[in-house]
Amino acid sequence: MTDTLDLIALVLILAGALLCLTAAVGLLRFRDVGSRLHAATKPQILGLLLICLAIALALESWPVVAFLVPVMLLQMATAPLSAHMIARQAHRNRTIDERDLLVDELAEQERTPPAAGG
């Protein structure tokens, strides 16, 4: 049974490393902010989750799982929030191509004064 778990852990680590590599390549290759944010958050989080799962399977220890669960939860909570803040700042700096946006809710908020109630 240990050999099977080690093989599954190896496959998970390789898949997670491949996802992390694609996230890094995406950050270097993509040109606009939106594509870079997509590359920085989605494959990176999934890669980390796969690697943490592989570590938990390989070590077969509850203290390790208790350590890895908060790591995964914090990563899932902070990566989307930081991507949202970066995208919002890029919109305010006008570095996002507005032709690529289907709906621009921030532009609507900028046109409506805060005290107007809308």
Keywords:
118 residues; mainly alpha; elongated; transmembrane; PhaG_MnhG_YufB; Monovalent cation/H(+) antiporter subunit G; membrane
Structure, described:
- It is a single chain.
- The chain is mostly helical and 118 residues long.
- It has one domain (2-116).
- The protein is built from four helices and no strands.
- Helix 1 (2-29) packs antiparallel against helix 2.
- The protein is elongated.
- It starts with a helix and ends in a 7-residue tail after the last helix.
In N-to-C order, the SSE pattern is HHHH
Q: Give the % helix.
A: over 70%
Q: Supply the helix-strand structural class.
A: mainly alpha
Strand content: under 5%
Q: Measured on Cα atoms, how large is the radius of gyration?
A: 19 Å
Model regions low in confidence, pLDDT < 50 over at least 5 residues: none
Write down the overall geometry: elongated
**Number of separate domains:** 1
Q: What is the first-to-last residue Cα distance?
A: 61 Å
